[in-house]
What we know:
The complex is a heterotetramer.
Chain A: E1 14-23, E2 26-36, E3 41-46, H1 52-59, E4 67-72, E5 75-76, H2 82-87, E6 90-93, H3 105-110, H4 120-137, H5 152-165, E7 170-174, H6 182-197, E8 201-205, H7 209-215, E9 218-223, E10 226-232, H8 238-246, E11 264-274, E12 280-290, E13 294-298, H9 305-312, E14 319-324, E15 327-329, H10 338-343, E16 346-349, H11 353-357, H12 364-368, H13 387-400, H14 417-429, E17 435-439, H15 447-462, E18 466-470, H16 474-480, E19 483-488, E20 491-497, H17 503-510, H18 519-524
Parallel strand pairs in A: 3-8, 3-9, 6-7, 7-8, 13-18, 13-19, 16-17, 17-18
Antiparallel strand pairs in A: 1-2, 1-4, 4-5, 9-10, 11-12, 11-14, 14-15, 19-20
Chain B: H1 6-31, H2 36-48, H3 51-76, H4 84-101, H5 107-136, H6 140-163, H7 185-191, H8 205-222, H9 224-234, H10 236-241, H11 246-273, H12 284-294, H13 299-322, H14 328-344, H15 346-364
Chain C: E1 5-8, H1 18-33, E2 38-41, H2 46-57, E3 63-66, H3 71-77, E4 86-89, E5 98-103, H4 105-119, E6 124-129, H5 134-150, E7 155-160, H6 171-183, E8 188-192, H7 196-206, E9 210-215, E10 226-232, H8 234-244, E11 252-256, E12 263-265, H9 277-292, H10 300-303
The complex binds adenosine-5'-triphosphate (2 copies) and magnesium ion (2 copies).
Amino acid sequence: MDTKVQHDSAAPMIELRGISKSFGPVQANKNINLKVSKGSIHGIVGENGAGKSTLMSILYGFYKSDSGEIYINGKQINITDSHVAIEAGIGMVHQHFKLVENFTVLENVILGMENSFLINTALNNARVLLSELASTYSLEVDPDALIEDLSVGHQQRVEILKALYRQADILILDEPTGVLTPAEADHLFNILRNLSKEGKTIILITHKLKEIMSVTDTVSVMRRGEMTATLETSKTTPQELAELMVGRSVLLRIEKDATEVGGKSLEVHNLSVMDKRGVTALKNVSFHVRKGEILGIAGVAGNGQTELLEALGGISPATGTMKIDGEEIPLHDKGSDARSRREYGVSHVPEDRQKLGLILDFFAWENIAFGYHHNDEFNKNWLLMDNRKTREIARQEMAKFDIRPPTPNNLVKNFSGGNQQKIVLARELEQNPKVLIVGQPTRGVDIGAIEFIHQKIIELRNKGVAILLVSVELDEIFSLSDRVAVLFDGKIIGERITEETNESELGLLMAGIEDGPEEQPAMESVA
Amino acid sequence: MKNLPKWIDLVLIPAINLFLAFMISGLVVVYIGENPFRAMQIIINGSLGSAYGLGYTLYYATNFIFTGLAVAVAFHARMFNIGGEGQAMIGGLGTALVCLFIDWPHWTIALPFAIMSAALFGAAWSAIPAYLQARRGSHIVITTIMFNFIAYSMMVYLLVHVLKPKGQMAPESAKFVAGSNLPSAHDIFGWFGMAFPKSPPLNVTFLLAMLACFLIWLFIWRTRMGYAIRAFGWSETAAVYAGISPFKIIMVTMLVSGGLAGMMSINSVMGEAERLLIDSVQGAGFVGIAAALMGRSHPLGVFLAAVLFGVLYQGGAELEFEMPAVSREMIVVIQALVILFTGALENLVRVPIGRIFMKLNAKQN
Amino acid sequence: FAEPAIIFDIGGKFDKSYNESAWNGAEKWKSETGGSYREIEIQSEAQREQALRRLAEAGSNPIVMTGFSFGSVLDNVAPDFPDTKFALIDFVVDQPNVKSIVFKEHEGSYLVGLIAGMTTTSDTVGFVGGMDIPLIRRFGCGYVQGVKAANPDINVIQNMTGNDPSAWNDPVKGGELTKAQIASGADVVYHAAGGTGVGVLQAAADGGILGIGVDANQNHLHPGSVLTSMLKRVDVAVYNSFTEGMDLQTGTVVILGLKEDGVGYAMDENNQDLISAEVLEMVEATKASIINGDIVVHDYTTDDSCPAS
Amino acid sequence: MDYLTIIQILDSMLRLSAPLIFACLAGLFSERSGIFDIGLEGKMLASAFFSAAVAAATGSVWLGLMAGLTASMILAAIHGFASITFQGNQLISGVAINFLASGMTALIGQNWFRLGGRTPSLSGDGRFLPIEFPFAESIGKIPFLGPIYSELLSGHTILVYVALLTVPLTWWLLFKTRFGLRLRAVGENPEAVDTGGVSVSFLRYRAVLICGLLCGLGGAYLATGMAAGFIRDMTAGKGFIALAALIFAKWRPAYALYACLLFGFLEAIAIRYQNITIEGVGTIPVQFMQALPYILTIVILAGLVGKAIPPKAGGEPYVKER
Ligand SMILES: Nc1ncnc2c1ncn2[C@@H]1O[C@H](COP(=O)(O)OP(=O)(O)OP(=O)(O)O)[C@@H](O)[C@H]1O
Ligand SMILES: Nc1ncnc2c1ncn2[C@@H]1O[C@H](COP(=O)(O)OP(=O)(O)OP(=O)(O)O)[C@@H](O)[C@H]1O
Ligand SMILES: [Mg+2]
Ligand SMILES: [Mg+2]
């Protein structure tokens, strides 16, 4: 590990000059200049599709820039591929992890850096190094675990370990906290601070301005492929950054008026679910959501949120009872699939838009009917679907949800993540559901879009829909939900009225520290 | 690269690829000591230049359309049905049973029943692989390969021991009843007072094949089931999220696929041979794979690819006839090169063409 | 003067079987007379009729074709070309301008069976067929009858290669079948399996037993290891048809058996040490009996059954 | 079934499995790297032809083997060219290679030897001969274990032993070496390899060429080890059976061995027991016995083997920029 004197500010550690890159007709980066000094933490913010990931991938040699120069430590380097970047001491933690899922942690760490023909030595060396790093930076992770068995937080640690194993002096992190819980994120930032103290230069891409403010030294803003500003973090504010990004002022926290809550719309009793490995992932969970109410489900990822959503959405079998407006709906028999759930008026915005919510290779208009393709509005007659009408509906909904570009005849995979999320929301919210279940609605989405999505969810609540919101973002839970329940180890460990609780209390619950039994009646009293 | 105008994508690039394939084939022709240009001319003229040649070309194409559609439909649900060969063979059995034992008064009555029977038998032959895939996750590629071999054995048994008239030498069924004989192109043109040569086996099934192309297009792109099949093909997890049952999709898709393959026998068994032969499919199931892949699983593409293969079959036969040095293996080589260049190596042409086009575009702007 | 023509069946002219034999006959005619002929190897069922008509329209005469599968097609086509003469090998078509030529493969097979039966020391012999179709059963049945005539206690192991078209081109499987027969005690193996038979004879030679060739004289393939070959003179039939040319006697059925020298067994320098004078004598005597009708070899295809097994 | 018969069936199983093992492991390398290959059949066929042709012409089976390997690897390179460099459809490319090999071998064969695409029969040094183990004769007399040594293990051509050795070698290469680690990674997630600074294309080319090499060994074994010469289309679907075995084996070397041995065993049984008469039922049709291996395969697949999950990145070309 190299521990040079920090802030040796003669030449910037990283300098980009006039970087441009286009993908076919899309110009992702336009003439970008950037300097980052050694040992600093530099933040980059920008809307979805602004070109942040592209720029970093160019720095890392994953993409080749069309023009421009890169200087590392004052020396111009022609980064033709990632190999050159690694040699130059650059490490990158990608937005979408580049890990081999059925490999162990060790195998992933040494991949590409095995040093000899047989991998045994490398595995042993890596094992030693990993335990050293674990103690130096508290980056613990089981070296023999398979990636697919690790939580995303741990997977991310593996990515960081990979970079450190390669002795990176420069560490690029692309939206590292998008999938982390607040505690995990804090942990990560501590690690980053330690690394920067040791002289490592860090570039951090994030949508969360709070993180920028708390951890970075300097920050750049990207907009539509251009670098619009580079500022010292201490001399700017979240508001200013948000405006620079979006080009208008943004509400960082949604206004929400109290609404009249109605009767119980969604009731769940003793819901239990086995996960794919046959482990009980949800144990006798009971709760209800009233009309015009948002119940937030908080918790550290992996405590049963996914199973809860999939059970309610009719994707996976479950036991227990589920009632909509007092009518019991079947949970387990064959008819109780996702299709019948929709027919009962349950709309479901899934956690993972790419794996569940969308067919990436379908056009936007086809996705607008997805799951509702049996509905009359999308069909001409008993046999044929009505594509023209579906396209028209899609056009309207896309306009209403400000989806860019607003063209239904566009493959969904060509939309940015934020806009993909809006397509899912447009589809599910426009079905006039009785009950809406939402998982991580703003994961990886820029602040402009977050504002919009939050507004839409509140609007639906105000219309009297019962909403179940699952999110690992406490901010989101606090700004949207009326009540919040915390899932821990497959059980609801406590419920609070949002206005009567705070982050630290929820934080304790999320860590599994249970509250006294007297809380339960307090909740009933809201009714 | 993806924003090339349609005509470049659909016409120019395939044309150049085809040209390249023929160029290389030409070298092989030169290798065996013949004139490649004359060979080319014989292939084109022999297959498309006369009603006679066209009659054969389209007859072969009809076979490949059915087997190609069969593979294509399965592809949409991301399943690779290698079993077209066996399904078509068993479909032939279905056709034969209908045409052997019922004294049909007229082909118009026999045909619908034969179609149903052929499709039913073909579908039945794909049902077990489909079920095993849907319920047990047994890989459809293995099971359909195995079912091809089982079909061969079953056909030999049935023809030799059951369907063959006693004392007959050839392991084939008796001739079908006269009432089941389908009108050939010669007959059909005759009804309208037009002339068409008598020998080409092209028959009314070709119209059926075109209809099948249209119906499959409608099925895949216009019905809910087709929508569900495509969704499932792109992403099984998303399909489940949307309430689409994988079991239902796998079963329906494979039954349709097997049914289509089975219907090939309407053309070859009922339309041409008018009896069940021991190998009535003759590799059409495998050519169907190539046709589906080259046609990008789109019925129109499958149709065009099937006609292309028809051209190669018929043109190849003419070539063999006109050029004694050319053997039938030569035709197989040409087919291989056509598949390679138009199917697998298309980027060889697409990338440079795309670049040229982009440059031209940039200049214009 | 019209060119003669020949159409080969789907197996192709190099099938190591009757198509190849036919081709040899045509080539012999070509080299002897200096004449030329046209040929087509069909690749699909639909091409049977196409090839026939193409040749007839082009004025080829006579047109010879090999294989029973041409029967029904020729029945349709022949009336359309009354001036063309056709010769069909292996099947009978009743048309005035068709000469049908069929062989009594069972008689030839009987003789090689007899030789096998008299040669075996293990009292076990084998037969490898290509596919379980009547034609091949006819070979097998004649062979078994011959073996049993030598000694009714001899055990005949009969195997078929497979059911898909590769059954005729699978020397590996042919070899493996032969090895299994050897392991079961067979010391003479007769094949009627086209290209697969190459593997049969090879495995027999490698295994130190004797093989019996078919159709053409295959004794030279492994001198000293091929006991004899059952000759089916398709080559002669083709040669004669080409030679007769326009004088081809049509409207007739020619049945070529031992008597007509249409079938037989091969003796040459490669196998003369394998067959003793005593055996030869017996075989010749039997041949005479068959020719004069004292011995009737049962033809499997007449009733789809075999009296001996 | 007596003991010796069992030994003989197992002996036959080994011979019949060897080409499958080669082809199956060939497919394993290719598919583990993310390149699907249904052209195993074609590559084997090409190698079978060229090995036999060159062995016939030179009288040296080793030269023949070299030629066979070269031919098979050239086809593999074409497959790589189409599916790696030009990001073409791997299935189409595989189909084309099967057609190409089938046509070309017969065409060239006819042109060279005028034997209808057949090569002359090989003899002497022109073919691989069985290797008798030392003292096979005398050890064979030891009861029980003797026949295993003398009948089952001894008396195969060298390529059978090579095939058996290739299995642990493949395992070692795949799981113990840098190359194997990267190879497995590139089939699962090529981006992980790419961002690790390793060339995806080069890695895949190597995998595809190894695939060609092994197919070449399989083909050469068919023509110069099992048979003694080439006959057109003599691979008779073995490439497809190997593909089935590969899926059966879930892309793992040891399982691949078991799957191929199983297929070989079933075929050996079917060859041995074609004519079975069951008391009261009569003779079972030979066609049923011939279909039995395929039926049993399906039964075993459905009954014992769970879902086979192919390498994740398999079949898709690696495209960085859409
Ligand atoms: N591999 C690619 N091929 C084609 N276009 C791409 C590719 N990667 C990115 N793009 C396009 O380039 C533009 C910039 O994308 P990029 O991923 O850099 O944005 P980003 O700022 O990282 O957005 P986000 O915040 O959503 O991660 C987008 O329009 C995107 O669609
Ligand atoms: N509400 C439902 N929940 C689950 N499965 C259903 C439901 N409705 C229908 N199905 C299943 O779907 C089958 C019919 O599905 P299909 O894909 O044809 O769509 P459909 O909308 O029912 O068609 P149509 O409405 O035109 O009859 C039925 O036989 C039934 O098994
Ligand atoms: Mg990004
Ligand atoms: Mg319906």
